[in-house]
Amino acid sequence: xxxxxxxxxxxxxxxxxxxxxxxxxxxxxxxxxxxxxxxxxxxxxxxxxxxxxxxxxxxxxxxxxxxxxxxxxxxxxxxxxxxxxxxxxxxxxxxxxxxxxxxxxxxxxxxxxxxxxxxxxxxxxxxxxxxxxxxxxxxxxxxxxxxxxxxxxxxxxxxxxxxxxxxxxxxxxxxxxxxxxxxxxxxxxxxxxxxxxxxxxxxxxxxxxxxxxxxxxxxxxxxxxxxxxxxxxxxxxxxxxxxxxxxxxxxxxxxxxxxxxxxxxxxxxxxxxxxxxxxxxxxxxxxxxxxxxxxxxxxxxxxxxxxxxxxxxxxxxxxxxxxxxxxxxxxxxxxxxxxxxxxxxxxxxxxxxxxxxxxxxxxxxxxxxxxxxxxxxxxxxxxxxxxxxxxxxxxxxxxxxxxxxxxxxxxxxxxxxxxxxxxxxxxxxxxxxxxxxxxxxxxxxxxxxxxxxxxxxxxxxxxxxxxxxxxxxxxxxxxxxxxxxxxxxxxxxxxxxx
Length: 498
Description:
mainly alpha; 18 helices; about 75% helix
């Protein structure tokens, strides 16, 4: 039959769908870059609000905890209420929380605003991805759309460093939060004008026990990793949080097999391809987010870069991710199996990590840092786009929100774990190096810097190994074939429980 029949491609018949993609991508960019945009501004905010060194991490952790812990709940709300409605609610709430944070007069007020941002991001992100999934069903257009989306998801954190550096140096740290308000306003008007959605499920109810167990378990585990950074892995609170998280997640899985309307239908994660995508995403972001933290401090503290110069140093990484996602992955996904992009992508990213291990206190950006950033960016671009496209392919419409949320959860939880895990490795290795080499007090400043860099390189070796593990997982678990070129995807049907 002809592809022009409305019954065959109702979403694709809308000539404004690409403008709708701009709105979806804008919202996703805002959510992703907000995880890092305040990193470069953190020293200024700490000084302005009188935060202690022990508490300053909560500017970052409050956001990632709320975001990662509440994503599954946000995804299911999107399925039940309607994705366009929750998309708009998420945008308005995110803008209000950003304005509150920008106007913060105390550290507690800023922490609370960041947690509110994370909570509304948990509603916004799965709505955005599920709207994209239901709007683009033609494989050729789907590849282009997910290429753009994957590029933003992969490069958003790096863009956050650039924007954060510019705003901090030329305005002040508060604008790193205020900047979300005009972006959200534009996105709200665009959503009303351009986005379409099926209505929510009438009479459907939220799985409250599942929400408490699943979200509580994720929050406990992410919180445990964040506390391990300062308390140590053997601390009683850290071990207690891990134990509580595991128990709650085990209870969550048990309950999902019995709940009349489960928060996360288990057939979604039992599917081999989706499970492989979720795990690949989590492992990839463990290495990537840890690297972002190290490079921010390395460039500013060791090489004495200004905030703007530090942000611009990440620009080649952003460009490489966009090229890898939109010009390579998006063009090849219709012709090759997803793992044929994901595995080489992770190998390239791991290669970039290995180049980073050559860092010294006197490294040249052009000859030692830039090549590693380019390899890392291409690898992540090759990987993220097929992960998003494969994980959300063929999902029943009523499950697209929670599936999208699970992909985002993998990214956020992986990033939170990676930051805490690799930073702990870096700190302990650096401390040991300084203790072993600090013999001459006159060389203390140099030895301290060398110790910091040594700690980073040890942690980056671990990150390279985790990237290779992600490639192995993708190669063994993601067995999906390339979609038929030019054919419309069939209407998804619910998958049977395995």
